[in-house]
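Bug report (template v2)

What were you trying to do?
Predict the complex of my protein with tryptophan.

What happened?
Run completed; filing so the output is reviewed.

Input:
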Amino acid sequence: MKLRETWGTRTGFLLAAVASAVGLGNIWRFPYIAGEYGGGAFLLVYLVCIFIIGLPTMIAEFSIGKKGQSDAVESFSKTAPAKPWIIGGWLGVITSFLIVSFYAVIVGWVLYYIFSYLTGSAQQVETGGMGEFFETFIGNGFIPVVWQLIVMAIIVGILYFGVKKGIELSNKIFMPALALVLVILAIYGMTLDGAAEGLAFLFVPDWSALANPSLYLAAVGQSFFSLSLGMGIMVTYGGYLSKQTGSRLPSTATRVVVLDTLFAILVGIIIFTTVFTIGGESDQGPGMVFVVMPEVFNQMAVGGSVIAVLFLFLVFIGGLSSAISLAEVSVSFAMRQVNLSRGKAVLIIGALITALGIPSALSQGGPLSDFLIFDLSFLDLVDTITDSYFLPIGGLIVVLFVGWGWKTKDALEEADFKNPAIAKFWLFLIRFVAPIMILIILLANIFGIEA
Ligand code: TRP
């Protein structure tokens, strides 16, 4: 029998969890969602969500994995055989499949921008012209699909040949490098003319925005998406923790959450200081980063192109590694449940993900822009279904399972809190606060309580 691989060190585990969490969710999604929901008010609700729902849920997911020592579906069923909790595992497979379909589209946009900076076309755009540059690209027939296909081919290739290890290793270098570039850009952003206005937008809440119930759903959804929660991924990660290295889940989870949030806030600073400098709108939708970030690069007196390529490359690697982990969920599911060889599973799942992603790629200005479902473009639709509904439901199952389905003693033993008072508080959060809040927010939105 082969021994299960485990994380060698606590730092290895921490790095892997941070690498999973930091991705397009921080760089692409956070700023445009924050912009859409009024900036400071959204950030405030987001922070509350992160600490009273996200963090306790992450500790719960790690605990299930540590107990089950396996992937999400098996860890659930091992920990509580023949109980309905296993639905949480299944839901994770569906959700990750849906998410990676549009995630790969966005990684394709990043790749196109790298290409544009390398060939020099992006640098030549005049100040304020990046919006048009982006729209020309995104509305250009099937061109965005071509970039999506390239990304999917890379993902399939990596999963097929199993060189995933290399990518994980590189997170040790690329993650800190990305942080460094972001810090530099944020400092630069703060020297721009619109800095004060941008910072006020991001950090000073406009209280009237809080009256909108979809803000809460968006905040919960974004916190789950950004922390890779609600789909059993962190259960799987916890499954690699050996009993020896894997103690004290709360402090690891806290670090992951804090680091992930810092990445998002840094990006927010860069984006909004720039938006108010170039006189753009703060609610530009999914293309926002691709319009605003290049303006920063192009305005820099020296080295803008170098920073641009470096930044885009790091985002590309981060996005790619997230897409690979997301796709791997479906691949290993197909291998286990349908009994396919790895090669076959990768090809079939890869084709399905690609097919589902194509309408998303065509929906942001291309031929399918006017094809709206519930008033949403196809990309927004898949994104909303997963982030606003499936992820919170997945998270709900996890907290109910650990809070109520599990014996208190077992839950506390796996989580391994140092301080008994905090342990009690955690139990309170996952038993009452998190499930009740998630439920209320879901119901308010399902039954369409309009702002
Ligand atoms: N958290 C990732 C991001 O911010 C997205 C993500 C969600 C993810 N679930 C995941 C990445 C699972 C890897 C594995 O971009």
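What did the reviewer find?
The pocket of tryptophan is lined by residues 20-21, 23-26, 225-226, 228, 231, 233, 322, 325-326 (CB under 6 Å). The two ends are 58 Å apart (CA to CA).
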